[in-house]
Design brief:
heterodimer; A: about 270 residues; alpha/beta; 4-stranded antiparallel sheet; 10 helices; 11 strands; B: alpha/beta; Transcription Regulator spoIIAA; 4-stranded mixed sheet; 14 helices
């Protein structure tokens, strides 16, 4: 299926970004369609987090153009940006909850800032409904430091959902979670898309999770797109670096790869 | 279990066999560079066991010898273990000490200056933004976060009262004792009151209070802001459409600029009280004399100049803390580093500005 048959939510063309003289992203084109789940994968340092930060507007591209939800970031000042960001949500790797506030106030914050003193009865209703979505009802009065890492992450997701964003970003949503919780989170993501038609961009290392949730996967290598497409297209990609990356992330295949290498040097003891 | 494998020379050249346990100790003992044209055949048939580091050593040998090495009679469990590792990459990766390039001195020194200039620019921009939030924003009807401001005033102001009071009392005592012991030589000990009150109001109280608050709250604010940057809390605020400087930094700055003058005046009063006590009970100066001399010596200008200094010092402490905290890099060790730097920088700026003010007031004959 062609994802671009849907209206485009993110259109990036020729994106470039560097820190000092280290080129992080170069000449990168990225497009995301409405209600699509795009996963960005790649080894550490390939630029995937930077790409995510560009799309959220936490950093500005040094070259190329980027339109998100039809808005051109380069034409917006900080105030426009702050108003626009109410349409976005982001889940940070470690939750990024404000440590000085209890979970309830953490979740209420975007609502209170957006609508300036909304009625408290409404706030508490929305907060509880979002907490229920991520299975954290009852943690309202706890401080973030009293939650486990996985719970903090889910509370972060609940906070990102507070303003019902049209576009949701995830930075390593399943890292540090046990497989069952990770699968639960993936289910929540799919559920969100089904019910609310939310568009999502996920940066992850977790191949199993990526296969589960993505419509399309984009593999970044050295700041460029090595390949993008469905699971089959990625698996059948002939680029050796892409293959090496996929195999490194999936233990079953890693063995056969290392085996061939070792055979050049090792004669295995016979008769055992 | 024995430690370390024993190496035995085999029949032909370059033929060796290992016995015992292949562990890190053995690996360190066996490690060497290949000789010209050498081919190694290492028999592992007699190994009784291996550790993870010992197994990794075989990969190091493969790295060094390349195709000129072969291991024979390798135990199946050792192969099984190595198959779990991404061996091709481990072997092809450069050793870390070669991979890390040393930064040339000029570059290090230059980048230090560039960082300084950037920080200074950031500091000034933040100062302008603070002025906007403190003066213009309320006039334009943008709300100030009163709740957060009160919390911060409590933390930087109210909580600092005991320590500021105690130190000021002691400073007052020290001043009075020193002044009296010198002035008595000229029969001028009644001027102790003038010296204590004016020195406290114009110089010592603002500076001492600022130094105490910089050490107490400046460090705490830097660490808090820097930690929020490191844990992406600041980014999270931005993504929620909240300006982190307005939300986090401005209430702290406003609290510092409001609390410091009050603490400063308190310090003057307590310090004068300390001097008073010493003068009356230790130096046996008449109560009336000392009281009248103090009231006579201290003018409203002295107090106001001290208050003005305190406001500026409060802003300096807050701006330094915020600048360094917001510009933190390098995770938790970075937080420690900027916190120290913030306190030292604040002390330095307080003294510099105090000198400037004192000279200015002197020149203007205030």
């Amino acid at each position: 299926m062609n994802a671009f048959a849907r209206p485009l939510v993110i259109e990036g063309e020729g994106l470039g970004f560097s820190y000092g003289n280290r080129q992080i992203l170069q000449e990168l084109d990225v497009r995301v369609g409405k209600a699509e789940i795009l996963t960005i994968m790649g080894p550490s340092g390939c630029g995937k987090t930077t790409l995510l930060r560009l799309m959220v507007g936490l950093a500005r591209p040094q070259s190329g153009s980027l339109k998100v939800l039809g808005e051109d970031y380069s034409r917006m000042d900080e105030d426009d940006m702050n108003r626009f960001r109410h349409r976005l949500g982001m889940c940070f790797q470690f939750g990024a909850l404000l440590n000085s506030l209890p979970i309830y106030d953490n979740l209420a914050l975007p609502l209170r800032e957006r609508w300036k003193s909304p009625p408290e009865s409404l706030v508490s209703l929305v907060v509880r409904s979002k907490l229920a979505m991520v299975g954290l009802l009852g943690t309202e009065s706890l401080l973030p430091s009293e939650l486990s890492g996985g719970m903090r992450k889910r509370a972060g997701l609940a906070r990102a959902l507070m303003l019902d964003p049209e576009l949701l970003f995830f930075d390593e949503p399943t890292s540090g979670l046990d497989p069952v919780t990770a699968a639960d989170l993936d289910r929540t993501v799919l559920e969100l898309r089904r019910r609310l038609q939310t568009t999502m961009v996920v940066v992850t290392h977790d191949l199993a999770s990526a296969w589960r949730i993505s419509d399309r996967i984009l593999v970044l290598l050295h700041g460029r797109i090595a390949v993008q497409g469905t699971r089959e297209e990625i698996e059948n990609c002939s680029d050796p670096e892409v293959q090496a990356f996929i195999q490194r992330e999936s233990p079953a295949r890693r063995q056969s790869l290392a085996g061939g290498f070792l055979d050049d040097y090792f004669e295995i003891e016979s008769g055992t | 279990m024995t430690h370390g494998a024993t190496v035995r020379q085999g029949a032909g050249p370059g033929e060796y066999s290992l016995e015992g346990t292949l562990d890190l100790e053995a690996a360190l003992r066996l490690s060497r560079e290949p000789l010209e044209g050498e081919f190694l055949r290492i028999d592992l048939g007699a190994l009784q066991g291996f550790t993870g580091s010992g197994a990794a050593y075989l990969l190091d040998l493969i790295r060094r010898f390349g195709p000129h090495i072969r291991f024979t009679r390798v135990p199946a469990d050792l192969v099984e273990y190595l198959r779990e590792l991404p061996t091709p990459e481990l072997v092809s990766a450069q050793p870390l000490d070669e991979a890390l390039e040393e930064q040339p001195f000029i570059e290090t020194a230059g980048s230090g200056w560039i960082e300084f200039v950037r920080s200074a620019r950031f500091f000034l921009a933040l100062a302008l933004e603070f002025l906007y939030w403190a003066v213009l924003a309320p006039l334009r009807g943008q709300r100030l976060r009163l709740g957060r401001w009160i919390t911060e005033v409590n933390r930087v102001g109210i909580d600092a009262i005991p320590i500021v009071g105690l130190i000021s009392l002691l400073i007052g005592i020290i001043l009075a004792l020193n002044a009296a012991s010198q002035l008595v030589n000229y029969g001028a000990e009644k001027f102790t009151a003038d010296l204590v009150s004016i020195a406290l109001a114009r110089e010592l109280s603002p500076v001492i209070t600022a130094v105490l608050v910089a050490g107490r709250s400046g460090s705490a604010i830097t660490a808090e802001i820097a930690t929020m940057v490191v844990t992406e809390e600041m980014d999270a605020l931005r993504v929620m459409g909240i300006n982190p400087r307005a939300f986090i930094v401005v209430p702290k700055l406003l609290a510092l600029t409001a609390a410091l003058p009050v603490l400063g005046v308190l310090s003057v009063l307590v310090g004068i009280g300390g001097g008073f006590g010493i003068a009356v009970w230790v130096l046996n100066l008449p109560f009336d004399l000392y009281w009248n001399a103090t009231v006579h010596a201290l003018e409203m200008t002295d107090i106001l100049l001290g208050v003005l200094k305190s406001i500026v010092f409060g802003a300096l402490i807050g701006l330094t803390a915020a600048t360094l905290g917001l510009r933190v890099t390098g995770g938790s060790s970075g937080v420690g580093k900027v916190t120290t730097t913030a306190v030292v920088t604040a002390f330095f700026l307080i003294i510099i500005f105090n000198t400037f003010f004192t000279y200015l007031f002197f020149a203007l004959d205030f």
